[in-house]
Amino acid sequence: MAQVATAASARDLLTRASFYEDSRDTALARVTEAQAAAGVALRRSPGDMEALLMQAMALGYRAKLTGNRADAVGARKQFELLTARDPRDADVLMALGAWHVGGVNRLGGLVGRTVLGAQKKVGFDALDRSVALGGNHALYSGIAALLRLEMDPSDPRGRSLAEAATRASTLTVLDRLMQRSATAVLASLRAGNADATKALASRLLPFGRLD
To answer: How many other β-carbons are positioned within 10 Å of the β-carbon of residue 84?
Structure first.
């Protein structure tokens, strides 16, 4: 009997797509599978927050891989709706913050705001709230650190977040991955090479291996 996809497997598929696949085509195939898995979960339980978040993240990841503006804007709108529904959900806030800061990092402040609606302040605020609400998991401080240091390797908040990630709890695969990433980027910071730190932070973020 074929295994039935679930929202939990959607999260696993997105993790695999964003951090472990070595080609855009394969990563995009995993994202498509994750969208389908989230859809199955939503048909079983409409309004399930986890499945809705995985669906929104899959759309955003698809946009990053294909460059589709409509998908990128659609993902932002879904993140905003989920944030309005539960403004204290650390995962939703992290996704919203990463969308905004990632958009600015890719396109620049002016173009990112004009084309996608990406805003640095909105992104940083959402990331800070996700860290505050995330229960000292390395995932939240680690992602926030990498996004800040990709934008500005001299950002003291980025460095302090990376340091916090190295001391945070590591209950999940993503926690452990982000803790290793924070340790690596801190070593680069201490070596004093800003360009190398910026490049490393970018490579350690979702799909950074493919850029």
So the answer is: 9
* Residue 137: φ, ψ to 5°: -90, 140
The CA-based dihedral angle spanning residues 158, 96, 58, 180, taken in that order and rounded to the nearest 10 degrees: 20
User: What are the backbone angles phi and psi of residue 23, rounded to the nearest 5°?
Assistant: -140, 150
Phi, psi of 108, rounded to the nearest 5 degrees: 90, 160
Residue 1: alpha-carbon gap to chain centroid: 34
Residue type at position 129 = R
Look-up of token digits 């959607």: 10
Record the tokens describing residue 56, joined without a space. Answer: 């929104």
What is the per-residue pLDDT across 71-128, written as a single tens digit (0 to 9) for each? Answer: 999 999 999 999 999 999 999 999 999 999 999 998 898 888 999 999 999 999 999 9
Q: What is the pTM of this model?
A: 0.94
- Contact 108/92 with Cβ under 8 angstroms? no
